[in-house]
């Protein structure tokens, strides 16, 4: 039966499959019946403490069952839950609380200047509490306020509704072909969209979520895989790389057990992708494209023929794709030579940004979240990213995608990494150049010959510069403005 919220599904499965495992840790687990029972009792506890419908409540992530019980109970009583990272310092929590007009904070420590409830103390009150019996939240009601930095680095509060949660969960379920008895290990933070939405997907499907607090203690991963016979994992590229660094190829032992692995939150290194595909040829490997504002809008199956340069996969079941020109006019036909700006619509789209009406107006248009990504649909219905609109290089009237050239260049074994950008030119306006991290035995002439055999002549870099390390975000994305500035400084020194 179709429910209006993730909570509705938890309630439904508490009746339909009460003994099925809902959430587990290494040494703790709850069935759907037990989980819903704890949520209702915690809701009663929160109401008794004076937290009510409409209150804004900061909840510090502790990455365990207790956190999810309180998170769900806040949603049940219709308070606006605002999850914050477990490592957030008290003074930063105070700043966030003031900005979001928080009624209180729920954390594992006391926060000065605002009413604070300790998670441990709240859980201790459950035993003597009655079960709250109140209506479930409706689809259009607010579910949570998620923080995101996006590409600007500026924190934004994304208002999410329950219908968004369910629609995005359905995107994940359909996109991964998630089976009913799915058991998924989630080491990703449950205050961020990626981790939360994987948890919600399993709740909507009636599966099991295995919680893990990061990948520092990789031994916990193997114990969870063995103890609960996990069939899926949601990883970041960093956590996958850590598995390889700490445990070598041990993950191959579970090749026949894992249905799929989801990768998200940052670009996946080609070497790690190929290694995983080699070790686990029968395990499906997925990557989702999306944002907190419009989650899981496109999915790429790395095992399929869709895995081509620039391809982010195919639009998911609840996602509506739209292309526009720079003036915002719809573009009906796109192709390699005629990319356009990408927008996403449908039930996955956020309500807006908290306290940011102008930013909301700039981002949302006719129910679509606008991006700065230039893309097109190929004849097979695959979405191909050309690059960010402000990254595209206009060389003498020809448009060049940096990502296309970078992907090609990284195939040359004697470079470790590269960034394709441009510098100003008095005749053409800008000319393409490249910043390279070279390995031993690198030869520039040989590298240029390699590129010349792969790309059109006008796309070849007119100059190559060298560095020991490329400036990147913590997620691994290139900081292109810093790269341009670095090249300017190199030229200034050489002048």
Number of strands: 26
Helical proportion?
25-40%
Low-confidence stretches: none
> What general form does the structure show?
globular
Roughly how many Å is the radius of gyration?
Answer: 24 Å
Q: Strand content of the residues, in percent?
A: 25-35%
Provide the structure class: alpha/beta
Number of helices: 14
**What is the mean predicted local confidence, pLDDT?**
92
**Mind summarizing the main beta sheet?**
14 strands, mixed
Cα end-to-end separation: 70 Å
Explained architecture:
The chain contains 14 helices and 26 strands. The protein is globular. It is α/β, with parallel strands linked by helices and 495 residues long. The strands form five sheets. Strands 1, 2, 9, 10, 11, 12, 13, 14, 15, 16, 17, 19, 20 and 21 form a 14-stranded mixed beta sheet that branches. The chain has a four-stranded parallel beta sheet with strand order 4-3-5-6, with helices on both faces. Strands 7-8-18 form a three-stranded antiparallel beta sheet. 31% of the residues lie in helices and 27% in strands.
């Amino acid at each position: 039966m179709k429910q209006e919220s993730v909570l509705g599904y938890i309630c439904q499965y508490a009746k339909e499959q009460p003994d099925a495992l809902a959430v587990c840790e290494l040494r703790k687990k709850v069935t759907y019946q037990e989980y819903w029972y704890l949520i209702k009792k915690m809701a009663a506890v929160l109401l008794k403490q004076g937290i009510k419908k409409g209150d804004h409540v900061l909840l510090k992530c502790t990455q365990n069952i207790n956190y999810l019980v309180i998170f769900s109970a806040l949603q049940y009583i219709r308070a606006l839950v605002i999850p914050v990272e477990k490592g957030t310092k008290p003074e930063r929590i105070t700043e966030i609380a003031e900005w979001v007009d928080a009624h209180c904070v729920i954390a594992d420590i006391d926060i000065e200047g605002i009413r604070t409830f300790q998670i441990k103390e709240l859980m201790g009150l459950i035993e003597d509490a009655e079960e709250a019996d109140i209506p479930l939240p409706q689809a259009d009601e607010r579910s949570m306020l998620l923080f995101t930095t996006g590409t600007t680095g500026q924190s934004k509060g994304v208002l999410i509704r329950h219908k968004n949660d369910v629609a995005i969960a359905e995107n994940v379920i359909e996109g991964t072909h998630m089976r009913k008895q799915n058991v998924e290990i989630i080491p990703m933070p449950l205050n961020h969209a990626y981790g939360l939405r994987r948890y919600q997907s399993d709740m909507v499907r009636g599966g099991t979520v295995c919680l893990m607090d990061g990948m520092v203690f990789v031994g916990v991963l193997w114990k969870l895989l063995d103890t609960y016979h996990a069939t899926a994992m949601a990883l970041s590229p960093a956590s996958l790389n850590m598995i390889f660094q700490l445990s070598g190829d041990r993950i191959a032992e579970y090749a026949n057990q894992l249905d799929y692995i989801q990768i998200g939150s940052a670009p996946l290194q080609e070497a790690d992708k190929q290694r995983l595909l080699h070790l686990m040829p029968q395990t499906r490997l997925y990557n989702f494209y999306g944002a907190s504002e419009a989650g899981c809008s496109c999915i790429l199956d790395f095992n399929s023929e869709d895995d081509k340069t620039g391809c982010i996969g195919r639009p998911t079941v609840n996602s509506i794709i739209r292309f526009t020109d720079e003036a915002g006019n719809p573009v009906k036909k796109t192709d390699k030579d005629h990319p356009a700006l990408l927008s996403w619509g449908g039930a996955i789209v956020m309500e807006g940004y908290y306290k940011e009406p102008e930013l909301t107006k700039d981002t949302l248009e006719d129910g679509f979240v606008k991006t700065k990504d230039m893309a097109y649909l190929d004849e097979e219905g695959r979405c191909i990213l050309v690059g960010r609109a402000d990254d595209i290089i206009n060389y003498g009237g020809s448009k060049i995608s940096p990502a296309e050239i970078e992907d090609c260049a990284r195939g040359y074994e004697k470079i470790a990494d590269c960034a394709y950008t441009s510098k100003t030119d008095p005749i053409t306006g800008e000319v393409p150049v490249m910043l390279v991290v070279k390995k031993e035995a690198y030869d520039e002439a040989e590298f240029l010959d390699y590129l010349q055999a792969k790309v059109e002549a006008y796309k070849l870099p007119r100059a190559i510069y060298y560095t020991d390390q490329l400036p990147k975000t913590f997620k691994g994305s290139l900081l292109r403005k810093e790269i341009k500035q670095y090249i300017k400084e190199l030229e200034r020194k050489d002048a």
